[in-house]
Structures are given as C-alpha cells and as structure tokens.
Amino acid sequence: MRIRVNFEGPEDICYLGHVDFTRTIGRGLRRTSLPLRFTEGFNSRVKVEMGFPLSVGMIGEDEFFDFYLSEDVEIDKIKALLDTVFDGIINVKRINEIPDNLPPVTSLPAILAHFIYAELKEPLSEEALEKKLSAILEMPNIVVLRKKKEANVKKDVRPFIKDIKLLEINNTNNTSVVFLFSSHFTSAGSIKIDEIEDILNEYGIPVDFDYIVRKKTVVRYKGKYVSPFDLE
Is residue 232 included in any domain, yes or no? Predict the structure, then answer.
C-alpha cells in the first residue's frame, strides 16, 4: 500500500534543510505505529519518497511525500495518525492511496509556482518594473555561475524560467513588491531562488527577497500537467 501525502509546512520549520526534514518525516512515521515498509540494507530506514526540495527559508503550501505500508489500513485511520504525530510540524491537507508503480514525483517534469515577497532598493514604477521583467523573459539565454566542488561552472538557466510577473506593488513607496515566479523542473535541472534574485539585480531590478512561498506544484504525466495528488 502506497500513500501520497499533500501537506503544507508552516514558517516554523522553513529553516530545516531537505535532509533534516526528510529525517523528521521518517521519525514521525515511526511514531504512528503503522505497518511501515523499510528500505533494504544494513541501515534500513522508513521507505519515504520526498517531493521537490524547498530552499532553506522557503515556505511550502503544496508539498508532497509518499510512504509505503506492508498491509492495508483504512485511509481515515492513517490520516488521523498523521495529524497526531505531525501536529505543529506540518499540516497534512489530504492523503490518498496511489498505485505502487507510479513514478516518484521528482522523476517527472514539473512547474513550480512561487510568490516572492521583496523590497526594492530604490523606487520603481509599476510600468518600469513590468518593462524590465518583460525584457528578462525575452532573453534567449541567461547564464549563471554555479560552484561545483572547487570550480565555477556556467549554466544557462533560461530554460527553467517559465514566467515572472509583478503581482503587487505598494503604491505609497513603490518599494514593497510581490512577484509571481513559475519555474520548470526537468531532468536537465532547475533554477535556484537565489539565482532569480541575482538575475533581477543584474538586469535592472535592484531587489532584496524577504521570503518566498511555493504556492503550487504540478507535474507532467501522460501528456498533461496535473497535481501529483491526481496521478493514477
């Protein structure tokens, strides 16, 4: 029995790294007393498949993980146990049994949508901001430097930028803004949030990100983009 969990993580846990958060999920599942399946090998662990990792400090409102049971248990009972052990850690929105042969969420191409709350270092009008954002989206290539061990490697991240638009601007001071940023996650890679911040600054939008909320996750499966929760 394979269970997919759709959850949101409160601000209190957003500074946990992905590895530590995965361990937290595994420990929580152990406390449920459910008939869990474990990985094979000397250091066996609860068999958990996490969704797309969140950057440290990022809040997730549409996140996923899968775990496996060695025997069938009623969905309502599983949900009640998860609510109890993860109280104050994550908010379990919904769960569902899915086929064992479905691919892991992170093996599928995805679109991840974020709200970016930020402060401009100098006032810009709404018109000027939208013009600069359009110019960035029209660029065929955007190359960043990524550190790989002891060397810096050039990476064209333009294929991973789906869209970025201005959602809101504080008309009093023209410095508090909210962007909607959508990114592609593919087998070729993805873009990091801090790279988006660097790109905006480099191309004429002097900005500091305050915090980021990942609002929506969809994956491409059988030719369509759907929620990971709706795969079958």
Answer: no
For 181-200, how does the pLDDT look when each residue is reduced to its tens digit (9 = 90+)? 999 999 999 999 999 999 99
Q: Give me 83's structure tokens.
A: 């609510």
User: Is residue 89 located within the same domain as residue 137?
Assistant: no
Could you tell me how far CA 196 lies from the centroid of its own chain?
A: 15
Residue 137 belongs to what H/E stretch? helix 126-137
Contacts of 107 (CB under 8 A, 6+ apart): none
Q: Long-range contacts of range 20-28, CB-CB < 8 Å, 24 or more positions apart? A: 21/50, 21/54, 22/48, 22/50, 24/89, 25/50, 25/65, 28/82, 28/85, 28/86, 28/89
CA–CA separation, 155 and 146 (whole Å): 7
Q: Supply the pTM of this predicted model.
A: 0.91
Residues 128 and 194 placed together within one structural domain of the fold:
yes
In terms of Cα–Cα distance, which of 116, 143, 99 is closest to 231? 99
Structure tokens of 119? 């402060």
Token look-up 């496996």 returns 68
161 and 68 within one domain? no
Distance, CA of 51 to CA of 42 (rounded, Å): 25
Q: What is the rounded radius of gyration, in angstroms, for the C-alpha atoms of the chain?
A: 20
pLDDT at residue 170, rounded to an integer? 84
Domain of 195, in residue numbers: 110-226
pLDDT at 5 (0 to 100): 97
Question: DSSP character for 104?
Answer: P
Q: Where a domain ends, among 55, 74, 106? A: 106
CB atoms within 10 A of CB 59: 20
